[in-house]
UniProtKB/TrEMBL annotation:
Key word Cell cycle present: yes
Name of the encoding gene: minE
Keywords, alphabetical: Cell cycle, Cell division
Similarity comment: family membership: Belongs to the MinE family.
Gene3D superfamilies: Cell division topological specificity factor MinE
Organism: Proteiniclasticum sediminis
Function: Prevents the cell division inhibition by proteins MinC and MinD at internal division sites while permitting inhibition at polar sites. This ensures cell division at the proper site by restricting the formation of a division septum at the midpoint of the long axis of the cell.
Pfam families referenced in this protein's UniProt entry, alphabetically: MinE
Name of this chain's protein: Cell division topological specificity factor
């Protein structure tokens, strides 16, 4: 039980717009077009479906973010893929 849950703001249209803007900025910084990101997503799903059953009812989340490494700040692909079971 979250005893401080009442302090959290509910997500409104302002928060949704802010999240969408962040996503757009991440795509721009990663120099990845939405079309390329969609192609990457489809390719990843094709490979994963050979080994696991992906839950079609859950939303797949794929983002390009910036990660600090020993080589400096580089784009990183982050995927949240709902898996039902192994094949």
């Amino acid at each position: 039980m979250d005893i401080f849950g009442f302090l959290k703001k509910k997500s409104g249209s302002k928060d949704t717009a802010k999240d969408r803007l962040k996503l757009i900025l991440m795509h721009d910084r990663g120099d990845v077009s939405p079309e390329l990101l969609e192609n990457i997503k489809n390719d990843i799903l094709d490979v994963l479906r050979k080994y696991v059953e992906v839950d079609p009812d859950q939303e797949l989340d794929l983002q390009v973010t910036q990660t600090d490494t020993e080589y400096g700040s580089v784009p990183a692909l982050v995927a949240n893929i709902p898996i039902r079971k192994k094949r």
